[in-house]
Write a structure and sequence with these properties.
- The chain is α+β, with helices and mostly antiparallel strands.
- The chain contains 9 helices and 7 strands; from the N terminus they run E-H-E-H-E-E-E-E-E-H-H-H-H-H-H-H.
- The strands form 2 sheets. Strands 1, 2, 3, 4 and 7 form a 5-stranded mixed sheet that branches. A two-stranded antiparallel ribbon has the order 5-6.
- A hairpin with a 2-residue loop joins strand 3 and strand 4.
- Helix 5 crosses helix 7, helix 5 packs parallel to helix 8 and helix 7 packs antiparallel against helix 8.
- The N and C termini lie far apart (85 Å).
């Protein structure tokens, strides 16, 4: 069971006698000890709960339950919780760990068989492993990722069309300038490169502004969570991935080049005489 997987730093585990006699004892984690007993002398001390008083008999290292790090945990005998605190005799959750040499699936099958014998064959219990729960969450995150990717792709398409329209307007307004440049010897390739650079610069600037907003939002989130101590003492870290930021900005510039190609090609194909005649 999970208690046997705990590493004690002091004191003792909850014993079978504690369970049988409904002892008012508790096993706490290191962080609980630091919060309630800063001096570290928690063994034998009393903790007053809402409707229950327990004595600390042991301190365990901070542990992981169901794949999550839990730093503030306290355990008391089930019989004590049911008889003196919660009432009733229901058990909502049992955490177990497979012994070395046994596979998870084999252990789950044995647990399921035992529960079916206890319930008379009625499927009223549910047996899950942390791997199965993790796979479910990964599937959900995968679907969410696909949806977000679709939204991002649609946003890029709309933004790219907007950039294309802006560049087409720019070409139209600068027709005489283009004609003048061609008249003095500018090559079509030079005209195209000029407008491609302008289009890429426009989207690169947009990407830079987006990165600055993300950086500022991450810093604000970190500061607020540290001040409120949520979800833990050190707050919620929101590091800014510089590599991903640079990659995103370069991708923004690429979007500008792709959607600015048509306006640039249109500008490069303008005939200098017709361009100079435009008003």
């Amino acid at each position: 069971v999970i208690l046997n997987a705990m590493t004690l730093t002091k004191g003792r585990h909850i014993s079978a006698q504690d369970q049988t006699t409904m002892s008012s004892v508790a096993l706490i984690s290191e962080d609980v000890e630091k919060g309630l007993f800063p001096a570290g002398d928690s063994i034998g001390k009393i903790i007053q709960l809402d409707g229950l008083t327990v004595e600390v008999i042991g301190v365990t290292k901070n542990l992981e339950l169901m794949g999550q790090r839990n730093t503030k945990v306290m355990f008391i005998p089930l019989s004590t919780a049911n008889s003196k605190w919660l009432g009733g005799d229901n058990v909502d959750l049992i955490l177990m760990r497979a012994q070395k040499g046994l596979t998870i699936n084999k252990v789950m099958d044995k647990i399921w068989e035992s529960l079916m014998l206890r319930s008379g064959g009625r499927p009223i219990y549910n047996v899950e492993s942390s791997e199965n729960v993790l796979n479910i969450f990964q599937s959900i995150l995968g679907v969410i990722g696909m949806i977000l990717s679709g939204i991002a792709a649609l946003s890029l398409l709309v933004g790219g069309i907007g950039v294309m329209n802006i560049m087409l307007v720019s070409v139209t307004e600068r027709t005489r300038e283009i004609g003048l440049r061609k008249a003095v010897g500018a090559k079509p390739a030079a005209i195209m490169v000029q407008f491609l650079i302008e289009s890429a610069s426009l989207t690169l600037l947009g990407g830079l502004i987006g990165m600055l907003i993300a950086w500022g939002f991450g810093n604000v989130l970190t500061v607020v969570t540290i001040m409120t101590k949520w979800p833990r003492e050190g707050g919620l870290a929101a590091p800014f991935p510089m590599g991903a930021a640079i990659g995103s900005m370069l991708f923004s510039a690429l979007i500008g080049v792709v959607f600015g190609f048509y306006p640039a090609a249109r500008a490069a194909k303008l005939h200098p005489i017709e361009a100079l005649r435009s008003e």
